[in-house]
Amino acid sequence: MTATYRLQLRPEFGFAEAEAVVPYLADLGVSHLYLSPITQARAGSTHGYDVVDHNRVSEALGGREAFDRLADACAARGMGLVLDWVPNHAGVGPGNTAWQDTLAFGPHAPASRLFDVDWAPLKPALRGKVLLPFLGQPYGDVLDAGEIELAYDDGRFYATYYDDRFALSPATYAGLLDAALDAHERDDVYFDLKDLAEAYRGVEPHEVEKAEALRLRLLALAQRADVAAGLADVTGEALHNLLEGQFWRLASWKTAGHEINYRRFFDINGLVALRMEEPEVFWDAHRLLGDLLMHDAVTGVRVDHVDGVFDPHGYLQALRELGAQHVWVEKILAHGETLPEGWATEGTTGYEFMNDVAHLVLRPDGLDALDRVWRRAVPDARSWDETVHASKRLVMETSLPGELARLATGLNRISEADYRTRDVTLGALQEALEEVVAAFDRYRTYLPHDAAEAREVVLGAIARAKARNPAAEPSVYDFVGRVILGEAVEDPAPELAERLRLWVGRFQQYTAPVAAKGVEDTAFYRYARLLALNEVGGEPADGALSPQAFHSHARFRALRYPHNLLATATHDHKRGEDTRMRLAALTEVPERWAETVAALDAATEPHRGATGPSRLDRYVAYQTLAALWAPPPAADAEAYRAELPDRLWDYLQKVAREAKLETSWINPSERYERDLEAFVRAIAADERVAEAVGPVAERIAALGLRHTLTQTVLKLTTPGVPDLYQGTEFLDLSLVDPDNRRPVDYGRRRDTLDALTPLLDAPNAEDVRQVVESGSAHAKPYLTARLLRLRRERPALFEGDYQALDVSGDGADAWLAFARLGPEAEGAEVAVVVVPRFARTDAPAQVALPDGAAWTDALTGAHVDAEGALGTDALPMSWAVLVRE
């Protein structure tokens, strides 16, 4: 594989538009088109992850025929297709017929087996029902306001609430048909209507087939009668009584945290989890994918949120058996964590590489200096560990408390099964569980697989939880650990063994969303030492990554996961790959940054409101402003600057809400957000602010571009498959979504590639240096296209071994060098890659070379004679990929 190229599909950019850019991507050198979800999503979806039908190609994107044309176009160009697949959850709502069937028939619906619903929850009023927390206000207020109405469509009656609708049980249809009788008292359909009402009176809630037969009669009758004639009259108490007879219970969205009884994707009420561990659910949800994988072009699958699946090991194996040649998992790996052995996967989607590069290019002494600036700017900031712990507990107490309560209750039932542990109270168990989950140092374990590693992780979490709570009874924590590790009950009876298995699985499915919401979506917005490090899967408090550590990670990929994706930007990133590199360049100029922060504090003081922004939000604003201030080369500076206030406000509002300190999504503070918006818009237009931030912004733009070019070369030459996010062959100065999902100008990219083609076909050192070293707009596109061509022309080089090369001399710390070695059977091709680790390389270094005396630089076309060692000052330019002649 040469490289993947990720496209974010949406109604305005569907299969036809994707097909139109295939020729450009093929000419760029991409081997695989990598698509965001293509299945039918909720109406109006802008991302496709709210799937309502896994077995139907999205009509909004063009439908099956348009997809097939896209696949054929890829095949004609020798390109493959990688599909982003969503196994963990589905979108609820009118478009999900399986969900509507489940609402109509409850646990009796055949489709109910798809969804992870607890039909026997703790609250008696919810037993046999599913909570639907979709009301904007308390249920009684909404009902009294007449906002819940009844409707008929396609043989079914529904309750509606604005755009939402909820299928009624056929066992409650009789009264609705009775209500229509008055309108047809003199019509010949009167008795047919009355007969049908009587027939529905005989339907029991579980009689699915009988109800379906009656639905066909209702459909036919609706052609002659207004079966909805009396629905408007069913209001108030009568409507409430009707709703009470359903397999669901409407409620305010604020009830979800404590009472929701279906597993969700994180804390999103509109995304219900699927029971993919059940074989019949897997096969039912993968019929379309199995069909698509039969097309020659469709060779790969990206598994979204694999940690949400009950048994990832079994799921990935089933996916292989379905016919997927290549499988990647979206998996956040903690520091020191690797994928479990035995997973049928090529590797991850590459977040770890993104973070490796971000830490590699940092100057260690500069990072230490920035740490001091951060402490002065936000003196009350907690340590990273404290921030994570507090954030995870906040999420468990506000967003996911119901799931925690269910786990604690299940654990209490397990403790009651043994006289030795029956005195452990429910309250003590819940407190211990919360602390253990908060102490987890990764997303989850994968028991019963990888038991040795899981044991180390769990016991580590137990020890940390105990240390944090010295007044708590330690035996409670030990009991929690024994249950997780399967050591609490010796030789349990089959019923208890199954209860234990399910509890452990549910526990593992809980720690993952707590980590995601607690770390990525809370702690990252509370800790702002250097925003370049606050990236998905990142460790913001870690120091610079040494060349030795970078080599170790690359070597591991070469040996274990040679087709792991290498991402530097994604649809989920916190900031664009080149925004990140500009911020990393602050470690090159820490003293200047300290002066800039002081100047910005003075310049922005008049724009602060009564409630804020807080010191934290101001410091985030300063870094973001510095990173975005300088327009990219060749950009329309006026248009770029005109967009900046809106982009900054959208971003900083999200920052403040995710941090949950001054405002939040659940409880927005109008006063704080009003002051924050006024601050953002004022500083974006203030000349004093421009004078304060401009010099450092221009400097890190220049230094950051050098980091960008290093990142580009590493991504395209280290072990793994480069993954280009849409448009990032140009500079990517985006922020978090939706800023990183804006339309891409492919016409401009096509024109740029055409203009560079003569140089790409026949590179010469002088012209290449002019393009790359000068910092032109063509620097990144040139390196990207040139190295993609090299990967396509010399695939053996990039499928082979990885060897770190010694770098010595006064400037050794500022350089990174390695060799890629093709298989001996294919002529032992060798390429030597040399890049500047730091943006400023104050002294040259010597690179030890593999055997060989004659080399050609693939970037410049220059011939290089060197044997044994090569000085960096003798390279054709700062970045070199020397191929042995």
Automatic annotation (TrEMBL):
<dbReference type="GO" id="GO:0030980">
    <property type="term" value="P:alpha-glucan catabolic process"/>
</dbReference>
<dbReference type="InterPro" id="IPR006047">
    <property type="entry name" value="GH13_cat_dom"/>
</dbReference>
<dbReference type="Pfam" id="PF00128">
    <property type="entry name" value="Alpha-amylase"/>
</dbReference>
<feature type="domain" description="Glycosyl hydrolase family 13 catalytic">
    <location>
        <begin position="8"/>
        <end position="757"/>
    </location>
</feature>
<dbReference type="GO" id="GO:0047470">
    <property type="term" value="F:(1,4)-alpha-D-glucan 1-alpha-D-glucosylmutase activity"/>
</dbReference>
<dbReference type="InterPro" id="IPR012767">
    <property type="entry name" value="Trehalose_TreY"/>
</dbReference>
<dbReference type="GO" id="GO:0016798">
    <property type="term" value="F:hydrolase activity, acting on glycosyl bonds"/>
</dbReference>
<dbReference type="InterPro" id="IPR013797">
    <property type="entry name" value="Maltooligo_trehalose_synth_4"/>
</dbReference>
<dbReference type="InterPro" id="IPR017853">
    <property type="entry name" value="GH"/>
</dbReference>
<protein>
    <submittedName>
        <fullName>Malto-oligosyltrehalose synthase</fullName>
    </submittedName>
</protein>
<dbReference type="GO" id="GO:0005992">
    <property type="term" value="P:trehalose biosynthetic process"/>
</dbReference>
